[in-house]
Amino acid sequence: MEQQPNRLINEKSPYLLQHAWNPVDWHPWGEEAFRKAQQQELPIFLSSGYSTCHWCHVMERESFEDPEIAGFLNAHFVPVKLDREEHPDIDRFYMLFVQATTSNAGWPMSVWMTPDRKPFFGGSYFPPAERWGMPSFRSVLETLARMWEHDRPKLLASAGSIMDQLFDIAKPQSGPGDVSDAHAARCFEALAQRFDAEWGGFGNAPKFPQPSILGFLFSHAARTGNQTAADMALVTLRKMAAGGLHDQLGVTGRGGGGFARYSTDRFWHVPHFEKMLYDNAQLAASYLEAYQLTGEALFADTARDIFNYVLCDMTSPEGGFWSAEDADSLDPNGSGEKREGTFYVWTEEEIGNLLDPDEAVLFMEAYGVRPEGNAPVDPHGEFIGRNILKRTASDEELTNRFGLSMDEASRRLKEARSKLFESRLTRPRPGLDDKILVAWNGMMISALAKGALVLRDKKLLEAAERAALFILGTLYDSATGKLLRRYRDGEAAIDGKASDYACMIQALIDLYQASLDPEYLSTAIALAETQIERFFDQKQGVFYSTAFDDESAPLRMIEDNDTAEPSPNSVSAFNYLRLAAMTGRDELREIALRTINFFSSTLDANPVALPLMLAARAMADTAPAQLIVSGKRSDPAIQRFVEAASRHFQPELTILHANENVEWLPSEAVAIAKDHHGQPAAWLCAKGQCYPAVTEPEELDTLLKSLG
């Protein structure tokens, strides 16, 4: 009998569609599943993950494709699949339960709950047979089914008690004091203790890029003069750029490049090969900041490489940005198996066959290629005889070893990379998660807008504007001010979360500063007002992750950590400080300050929990800086003023275009527009005083340098 798809075949999520042909009778998260559980008096089994999750694929192959396991699961539970990227608030609530009850929190997340969605048992990946000290998935199912049948009152009582505790944990109270310099000092001290001075990053393995921490370190250095803080971030960024975490085969205008999710070792060498849009967006911003601080070409080149990857490999025909590429891909030798990293790794023989002999020797020395393979960590034997490209010798070192000029060494390596890149194009590509998420697109639009100014590249601004117009035209209702979260295959759906509003507001502010188009800032202000109305708790002074009328999650929660993605509260604190400075609206600054100070208790307990919030607090306590430019927006002289200002790392600087027809501009900008009749000029106010107008970008650059 031909196998039929389950209910997931009607979904849009690539992750759910991956499971649409499982023999498991999957339901998407929603009322149909809850009604069935109530009517049949069955517990719900929730499996949450995402399409590029390696261990999600493993558990699918081992358990969800097994007819016997599927049959037992269908008979005794109501199976529900959740895409954690579409519904981060639901996932986070149940992850809180798993973290509180086990030491093994990750994806796939497995949670068993009552028909009214109260959890009573949870974990992460379960193997098909007992191993690694973990029970088999089948044995867990059998035990829980038996308990539900014979000891249900005890399970229900336990679930009710757990739910009460989760409600207490999930609703942190505002701290009794204010966030202060002491919190920032303690955060820096904690990071300094964990810093790997040799390889960069924090702690041992696995190592994550953690752009939120890098942003805090740059901010802390600027505020305190602590150069060690900046050096910690710069060392980390240099080491990551040289490592296997960074796809070394980026070819300008063709694709490749970008960064993988994290490194399994302390050397940034052996990555978990999935590539996420949100990681690359945040890292592009970090490399741009490093370039502003140092002028070092490596940082600018790495930012360009990330943009090249996203614009070539991760951009939809509509202009939005896709979500992720998988870690796994098909074996190019035709075995039919998917393995992690197959698309990216090389044998010495493959490289020798593709390159001329002299070229191959140079390339192998530059990228650490070895006959036996070069992976320092390989617990599953996946990389025997295979090489993960990592820069092990600089151009300068190669010139000495091979008697070449710098230009010649660089040229040969570029040609070699291009040849390997062309060969790699013939391999089966990793799977693509082609949904478009507003929050992640907002991060990428913001990075591109900044990159357009810092790197002086109009193509980046064009890409940012195209993506923003797609989001605003497809997922934004200007009449209600509401955002939707996800677009895929012609469907815009799912109520926007606080992160979608926060990241899109940030994107529009940055787009305004790059383009000076007032429509972007007008829309940012409108979105900010909607975010306050729908997410801000006026009593406590903080943003919830879910809107007041969104009932999809069991509980409205508050994001109190800057993790792989920044907390929407941290992003919002920056946004409202910037909007207050640009509009003169003090009530927006008050919202930012209340949001920052809400987390004083969180930062008392863990000063590294919210590094970006500490950076926002530093901005709030720094004398505001504002640049007002006059002249026609189309005048190239205006753009040169903005680019001159963008050479400097000065996060508190806001940029306004004087225009007497824009209602939200503060009075001083309107006065300048009226008095100067469109002539190109720039006025800077910083460090408590305003300076005479300048008419040349070089004068502005000199003035900003003199201010440190």
Automatic annotation (TrEMBL):
SUPFAM superfamilies membership: Six-hairpin glycosidases (SSF48208), Thioredoxin-like (SSF52833)
Which InterPro entries does the annotation name?
6-hairpin_glycosidase_sf, Ssp411, Ssp411-like_TRX, Thioredoxin-like_sf
- Protein name, entry field: Spermatogenesis-associated protein 20-like TRX domain-containing protein
Q: Where is the Spermatogenesis-associated protein 20-like TRX domain?
A: 5-166
Q: Identify the PANTHER family for this entry.
A: SPERMATOGENESIS-ASSOCIATED PROTEIN 20
Q: Name one Pfam family in it.
A: Thioredox_DsbH
Q: Which Gene3D superfamilies match?
A: 1.50.10.20, Glutaredoxin
Share an example GO biological-process annotation for this protein. carbohydrate metabolic process
Native organism is Chlorobaculum parvum (strain DSM 263 / NCIMB 8327) (Chlorobium vibrioforme subsp. thiosulfatophilum)
